[in-house]
Design brief:
Helices cover 21% and strands 17% of the residues. The protein has 135 residues and is an alpha+beta fold. The radius of gyration is 41 Å and the shape is rod-shaped.
Length: 135
């Protein structure tokens, strides 16, 4: 953009000088040429090297082995699952009565899915089937 403006100024100045010249002269004075060299925006020094491109490696998805929590207090079972990195936990009343497990410490895990030892993704849902202690 500055180069265009500079060229326009030079052309306008040339026309103005030619028009202001003596009326008797038929030959126009030679136009002055102005050369503008753009300055580089990125300077590269001879000793500098560009950083190598990062190498993309294919990694296997993380898998977690499901711990065995059958027979454990329901609250303790949840804590163990979370300690292993499994946070997607569901809970169900194993008696089929559809009760909510409001006080986890009064319940014991009688079954779990997926089974203990299964390798799962960290986002897998683990369902703990529990019943009240003494039932």
């Amino acid at each position: 953009m500055p180069r265009i403006i500079l060229t326009a100024v030079v052309v306008a100045a040339t026309v103005a000088l030619t028009a202001c010249g003596p009326a008797t002269s038929t030959a126009a004075a030679p136009a002055k040429t102005v050369t503008v060299t753009p300055t580089p925006s990125d300077t590269v020094t001879p000793g500098s090297k560009a950083a190598p491109a990062p190498v993309k490696t294919r990694t296997e998805p993380v898998r977690i082995r499901v711990p065995n929590v059958v027979g454990h207090n329901h609250q303790q079972a949840q804590n163990e699952m979370q300690a292993h990195g499994l946070y997607m936990l569901a809970e169900k009343d194993a008696t089929g009565q559809g009760r909510l497990l409001l006080w986890d410490r009064n319940w014991v895990v009688v079954r779990q899915t997926p089974r203990a030892g299964t390798l799962v993704k960290p986002t897998a849902t683990i369902t703990l089937y529990s019943k009240k202690i003494g039932e």
